[in-house]
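Exercise 7. Given the encoded structure of a 130-residue chain, write a plausible sequence.
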């Protein structure tokens, strides 16, 4: 398999892991709730990363992605980046609103952001085809 496809697949799998891990923990008094990405907007990121994974597996795996697949991969990565970035800023704002409690951002959001950056940048940085 071409190293570009391998790197994109690794980013996609990391993004899928990020979608099912905790995105936020809210503690109010003695009650704590953990929110997972897949139960909210993270389902959009999971869909984006799944589509990227499928596109990476299609075609001749010994060649890098063509222009259209690189563009679509980056587009889906930007979509996942937007959703995770919006959640990151929204949760940050929410932390100031919760009066007698706390909101902490889970590691799933960070995994998703890193994976989205990989999926957006790798197709253009490794093994481009003219």
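Solution.
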């Amino acid at each position: 398999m071409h190293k570009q496809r391998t790197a994109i697949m690794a980013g996609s799998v990391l993004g899928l892991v990020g979608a099912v891990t905790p995105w936020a923990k809210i503690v109010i008094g003695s009650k704590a709730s953990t929110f997972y990405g897949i139960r909210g907007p993270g389902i959009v990121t999971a869909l984006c990363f799944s589509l990227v994974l499928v596109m990476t597996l299609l075609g001749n795996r010994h060649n890098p992605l063509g222009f259209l697949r690189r563009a679509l991969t980056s587009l889906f990565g930007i979509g996942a980046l937007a959703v995770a970035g919006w959640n990151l800023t929204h949760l940050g704002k929410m932390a100031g609103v919760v009066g007698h409690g706390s909101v902490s951002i889970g590691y799933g959001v960070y995994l998703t952001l890193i994976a989205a950056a990989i999926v957006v940048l790798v197709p253009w940085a490794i093994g481009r085809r003219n």
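Remark. The CA atoms of residues 19 and 37 lie 5 Å apart. Students should compare their own answers with the one above.
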